[in-house]
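Justification of resources, computational component.

The compute hours requested in this renewal are based largely on the per-chain cost of generating structure records like the one below. Each record pairs the submitted sequence with a full structure-token output. That output is archived, and it is also reused by downstream analysis tasks.
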Amino acid sequence: MANPGTTVLGITVAALLGVGALAWKAADSAPDDRQGAVASSAPPEAPQSGTPEAPPTPTAPPVPANSGSGKRVVYSVGQSMVWLVDVEGGQEKVLRWYSVVGGTVPIPVGSYRVDTKNEGPQRAGDGLTISHTVIIGKTNGYTLGFSGTETSLEEVAKLYAPSAVPSGTATGKATGTTRPSSKVPKNAGVREAAGDGRAMFEFTDIGSPVIVVQ
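The structure output for this chain reads:
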């Protein structure tokens, strides 16, 4: 005859094993949604930031036609602009271009060569402090050249702007009419920003060609 304690123990163990087996089967047969939920709870990967786009490189305005060839300086009176043109590998290349303020007396159109250079600084007839002066000649008593200045070109343009002056004031008798006159003495000096003036000074040598076009 079996021992009652042993029988009860055996039944208890069998019952526990059965419950464990059922739990395992239930877990095994459960859908994968739970695993998906666990996976989706992980923090999303941060998107890789793209490389910032570089700003577009400025394109030089075309060098005016009929402005010579080879290494040279080109100055357009009408556009108030200068180009420093070099030659690399047999091809012309604009190294620098920039706006300027022309003198109260425009430089006549033509071909010139650098005559003298003066690093400065010095005081010009228009009252501005100038440096890196490049002289290309003289005409009608006016010195033709280019100079850098620390004064902003906007201020230079205002200084050079003509103003209305009563006619006849030289004789002390105003006629009631007006004539344009600049606030500064007449000059044929082209004013450049300081950095541009230095660039032209370093780019040119005595005898370097300078082409002036309209």
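The CA atoms of residues 37 and 98 lie 64 Å apart. Residues 1-42, 169-179 have pLDDT under 50 and may be disordered.
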